[in-house]
Design a protein that fits this description.
This protein has two domains: about 180 residues, Medium-chain alcohol dehydrogenases, catalytic domain (Quinone Oxidoreductase, Chain A, domain 1), CATH 3.90.180; about 140 residues, 3-Layer(aba) Sandwich (Rossmann fold), CATH 3.40.50. About 30% of the residues lie in helices and about 25% in strands. Helix 3 crosses helix 4 and helix 3 crosses helix 9. The longest helix is centred in the middle third of the chain and has 21 residues. It is globular. Bound molecules: zinc ion (ZN) (2 copies). The site of one zinc ion (ZN) has 4 residues, from loops.
Length: about 350
């Protein structure tokens, strides 16, 4: 089968691999959609910067896989051939405290914690070998490209939004309108947010957020953002703010543009954040939450909600490429001038 690896110099290498044979508790998945994540670009594509859980070990790339089971190893308990499945992208030991909570992202067993596309083969190939315990059913109402986005981005966003509790009481600010920020806007609306405001530095992204009808207001990132947001919210600020940019300034905007008693969630990775604890947080009774990926049960819950709400994450995909053209897909994603970029197969190619 064909698959790609990322050598780390902003190139993509297409190689041939043997099709894996599923062992006990494992399945072989025919890939249908495999989307590119911002962290693939940040920690692997340009240069192998990742450490610890983000250390890339030269495996087949891609940690947002979705496809169909075509072969089953012995000992399966729930899934079967022809099931459509999303893969939770970290395979944990299954028995540490974090795994038992469903947060395999935080598995503490160094020997058994392996993320698809980082330490074990991922979704940028024709087939993927996965463990049954890492699978989530993809309902017929959702496309494979909907599912691929749940595997990382939408799951991560949903976790953060649940932590700060978005509802019809809230106006919501999202800083950073890459695919994760767009997902935050889409899910905030679905959860009932009465007003959504998006900030970014890149015009194409602001335009996309407006065109997709996800942001009621978009603001170009700049020194007046807090003032602008206050003007849009009767001088009060937003009840809930979410940083998806990882940018120092944008994080400060999220803190200062949150209303008194507001909740702030940091999802975007890397960088720094400088704020004055007394005026910015303590005297305003504000709370900052950090959120990293999600649990497998919450991902399963999100899939159910997406069907109930009738919304489709694949709407955020602006560009689709076949596997042979994966190098164009990564280059486009790294330019920041697209929405979500997907490598797709079979019926998802249209
Ligand atoms: Zn990711
Ligand atoms: Zn574990």
């Amino acid at each position: 089968m064909k698959g790609i690896i990322l050598p780390g110099n902003s190139t993509v290498e297409l190689k041939h691999f043997d099709i894996p044979v599923p062992g006990y508790g494992e399945v072989l998945i025919k890939m249908k959609s495999s989307t590119i994540c911002g962290s693939d670009i940040r920690a692997i594509y340009h240069e192998h910067l990742g450490k610890g859980p983000e250390r890339y070990q030269g495996v087949i790339a891609g940690h947002e896989p979705c496809g169909q089971i075509v072969e089953c190893g012995p000992g399966l308990r729930r899934f079967k051939k022809s099931d459509r499945v999303i893969v939770y992208h970290i395979s944990g030991c299954g028995v540490c405290n974090d795994c038992r909570r469903g947060y395999m992202i935080s598995c503490t067993n160094e020997k058994y914690r392996r993320a698809y596309g980082w330490q074990r083969d991922g979704g940028m190939a024709e087939y993927l070998l996965a463990e049954e315990k890492d699978l989530i059913f993809l309902p017929d109402e959702l496309s494979y490209s909907d599912g691929a986005q749940v595997a990382c981005g939408f799951g991560t966003v949903y976790e953060g939004l649940e932590k700060i509790g978005i509802s019809g009481n809230d106006s919501v600010l999202v800083a950073g309108l890459g695919p994760v920020g767009l997902a935050a806007l889409m899910l905030s609306k679905a959860l009932g947010a009465v007003k959504t405001i998006g900030i970014d530095i890149i015009d194409e992204r602001l335009k996309l957020a407006e065109e997709l009808n996800l942001a009621d207001h978009v603001l170009k990132a700049g020194p007046d953002n807090v003032k602008q947001i206050n003007e849009l919210t009767n001088g009060k600020g937003c009840e809930k703010t979410i940083d998806c940019s990882g940018n120092d300034r944008a994080r400060l905007t999220c803190i200062q543009a949150a209303r008194k008693w507001g909740k702030i969630c940091f999802i975007g990775e890397g960088g720094d954040c400088f704020f004055r604890p007394s005026p910015d947080i303590i005297h305003e009774q504000k709370t900052i939450y950090g959120s990293w990926v999600t649990s497998i049960w919450r991902m399963e819950e999100l899939v159910e909600k997406l069907v109930r709400w009738g919304i489709h994450p694949d709407k955020l995909i602006t560009d689709r490429f076949p596997l042979d053209r994966a190098s164009e897909a990564y280059a486009l994603m790294s330019s920041g001038k697209s929405g979500k970029v997907a490598v797709v197969f079979d019926e998802e190619l249209k």
